[in-house]
Amino acid sequence: MASRKPSLEELNQKAKKIKLVALDMDGTLTDGSINIGVEGELFKRFNAKDGLGITTARRHGLRVAVITGRKGPIVQRRAEELGIAEDVMSGISAKKKALQALADKHNLSLEEIAFMGDDLNDLPALLATGLPAAPADAAEDVRQRVSYIAPHNGGEGAVRDLLELILKARGVWASIVEEYTEEGKGDRQ
Question: Whole-model pTM?
């Protein structure tokens, strides 16, 4: 069942309330490819724009978390690079439950959380949050049910799109851009 897409004003109102953005890994932070060798997963491809968006958002008071069904050192290493390792939940099959645990940990309501996911296993978590979002290439049944569809695919800037939406709704994006015209801020990519 498709949900009614919110107007731009309604979307901005939802985005203003967000204090934590939770992300699926494969298909959201990555392009969804799983590269496995004899010893396990070999590598994942991440997007530098997503990375800079995450570290910039964190610097401006937005928490970022990862909830993923997969386990492995690659997820943890990327999270450490971006300063979000304390909020990585891997090997998770019940993402809605994990989302509630994050909400409890940070004393937030689910309305204050955005979740971006790309496939059917993400639906329970997506439908529980204040701002359900998906990359442009998410499964059709997911795209039909979320409030925001990023213009970019997973692993190609979709996370950055969502973070910019939230930071613009908060009224801080212009000042972030202005900060960068002076010099870099040490944000990781």
Answer: 0.91
